[in-house]
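Record 1 of the preview.
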Amino acid sequence: AVLRLQQLEQFLLGPGDASADSDSWALTLNSEVEEALASTCDLACGVFGARWSILFGRRGDEVFPFASGGESVVFSSDAMARITAETAVACPVPLAMVDGAEAIDSAVCCVRLPSGEVFGWLVFERSSAQPLADCDEAALELLCRDIFHHLKRSEQLFDAVTAESLQSLISEHNQDWIFVKDEQFRIVYGNPAFLTAYPQEKRNRVIGYTTVEEFDAAEAELFLAQDALAFETGISKVVEEIHLPNGSLVTLETTKRRFEDRNGNPYILGICRDITEHVHLIAELRRTNEELGYFTGIASHDLKSPLTAIRRLLEWVLEDCASLLPEEHVENMHLVMDRAKRMQSLLDDLLLYSNLASVDDTVQEVNVRDTVLDIVDLQDTPANLDVTAPDATVVVPVVPFRTILHNLINNAIKYNDQAQVEIQVTVQDEPDRYVFSVRDNGPGIPPQYFERVLQPFQKLQSRDDVEGSGIGLSVVKRLVERVSGELRIESDGVRGCSFEFSVAKVRDIR
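->
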């Protein structure tokens, strides 16, 4: 384990990993710190006139040497037990160097971390069994403090190496282009992704050069202007299209930030993200939307106009010839007219669905009850309809809100099979949204079809049984998403259905 002071206490108390060759424990220190601790042991020999000095570390019941000074010594098991039993700052202890040998006078100083946890012991030879003088205790305190400083230095070195390694790892494996330039716009660092912008044979002439000659002159002038702006203001951000030295044309989103090194020398850090594919996808999406708009125009004019003419011609033929045609032919004429009417309705719904992205979402105050009653009045409502709605005022995008309610109420009426059609509209005013519910007493929707009914042109009943394109609920779904809400269906598929949708609140009325 590499020594870290903030983790050292856990290391001293925890199980850790045993070394490969023995059951003893060890901490790995920076070689510079190891030499400093050895110098501290040498200093203890010099200050106290000792022939030897040794610094022990502790881990649980394990004790291991960190550093030593002077002569090489080996302690008996009894001596080690007496050393590890001491918790005083400094205590003279007679120690037997070898089992059965005569004990010699030694000084044992307990070394503690700032947390109070025992780190180890500094042990050195004493020429007398007398307690340490005040000046000796002060010197010993300085030595122990020096040990702590060296341990702290090890942690700092570890942090620096770790941070440098981590930063290098991030930079080396980052797909974004990362580079650093000095005040003369020379490149002083470039990660591998950045270097791939240059042909292989030219990459050895990137670091230390401006490389402007490798780019189109006009493009080079533009990105050098952004370099200057970053040096002047501290940051620049730009989306630029550049011909790279390797011959490719890319669109880059580039951010440059000014920073200074330890000596106050200014540099800029540049990060370029290749958004070429993103730009191409946006262009393709725009092209697709334009084609969709063109198709919508055809559907709304070139298809609807002849369809209307066909319906009128059929109506005229039926008016003039109904009495002359057999009853079976008259029924077929009505069937053709119904199909033409259904196709016109389908075109209208398709036009609505394709234009949802451009729906006016102006926010206004509206009364829920008035809105519902207005929608019902516009429907082909049956006489047995009973609708209830709260007298509540909400602030919502009016057009999406009315369209959602219109489609849900229309569905509740169209598919209801009861003698008395009942529709209940409710609203809950929550802190960040309104939650509306449209409940009916119709046949309901089986749970396994919840997802299906929200897809365009999906119906659970035949179009010959109930007129409609099956697009109404998919319009509801898209509009609910447009107002940052959620749509939920509740039904047991036997009796009744509830559509609950939310509308995010806005802070002001536009």
